[in-house]
Amino acid sequence: MRTLLKVQRLCVSYGAVQAVRGIDLEVLTGQIVTLLGANGAGKSSVLGACMGLVALASGSVTFRDEDISRKGTEQIVHRGMTLTPEGRFVFPQLTVHENLLIGAAGTSALRSRTQQNVEKNFDLFPRLRERSSQVAGTLSGGEQQMLAIARSLMSEPELLLLDEPSLGLAPNIVDQIFDLIVSLNKSGTTILLVEQNAELSLDISDAAYLMQAGVMVKHGTSESMRESGDIHAMYMGV
User: Fold this and answer.
1) Residue 179, pLDDT score
2) What are the φ and ψ backbone dihedral angles of 33, each rounded to 5 degrees?
3) Pairing of strands 190-194, 32-36
4) Is residue 18 a contact partner of residue 214, using CB atoms and an 8 Å limit?
5) Is the pTM of this model over 0.85?
């Protein structure tokens, strides 16, 4: 497996506050990699920096052997990486179908496959097909999360960044979302997952990283991370 995403010595600051301090992270093609940490650890800032949504104070982000540290978000999406943000952020006044079309913006070749990709997502999310003409703001939380992920998939990403996909969802919906993540990965999408549910995340991922107060404190295979006990200690505030 080749390195798809490589983050080196990444620092992110918001004014005088240093949110991310010199972290390294690597995602190999075909993997699910989990980035864990308590609220405020800096996880979302890492994803934002990878997508060009947050400026880097220093360090670098390399995707498919290209330095994208100073690329704009649209350029990064065109290169094959997308983000499903925390909080979903669907367009509430637009229909399900219209939300998907927004995710299809890209190269002319990609735009020519827009309807094909809409149908693929409707096959993947049958509930969205049933609600194609429904205004997104009236969907349930789980349905909005499905729509947010489907919108990200419209650009045919090689790497999908998922930020807290289970947040605020009922347990049975959480299970469905995690089953979907596994299915997407098996179909060829590499995934970098930020998630508070450490147990479920480690169950489905190949490797994991643990952040605390903007610093990467541990990484390894998901199995070794689960057995170390460090993650439980961190979440319990020990």
Assistant:
1) 94
2) -115, 130
3) parallel
4) yes
5) yes
Rg of the chain (C-alpha set): 17
Task: Tell me the residue type at 235.
Answer: Y
Look at residue 21 in the predicted model and tell me its pLDDT. Answer: 96
Backbone angles phi, psi at 122, to 5 degrees: -65, -35
Q: Which class for 23: exposed (0-12), middle (13-18), buried (19 or more C-beta within 10 A)?
A: buried
Cβ–Cβ under 8 Å, residues 130 and 122:
no
Secondary structure E strands in the chain? 3-14, 17-28, 32-36, 58-63, 66-67, 81-84, 159-163, 190-194, 207-212, 215-221
> Angle, nearest 10°, between helix axes 141-153 and 171-186?
10
* Amino acid type, 96: V
Determine the longest span between alpha carbons in the chain, in angstroms.
Answer: 53
Residue whose C-alpha is closest to residue 24's, from 226, 217, 201: 217
Q: Take residue 189 and report the two structure tokens written for it.
A: 């999408």
Identify whether the C-beta of residue 159 lies closer than 8 Å to the C-beta of residue 135.
Answer: no
For the chain (238 residues), the mean pLDDT of every run of 10, in chain order, is 95 93 97 93 95 95 96 93 90 94 76 88 94 94 93 95 90 91 96 92 96 93 84 56
CA 163, chain centre distance (Å): 5
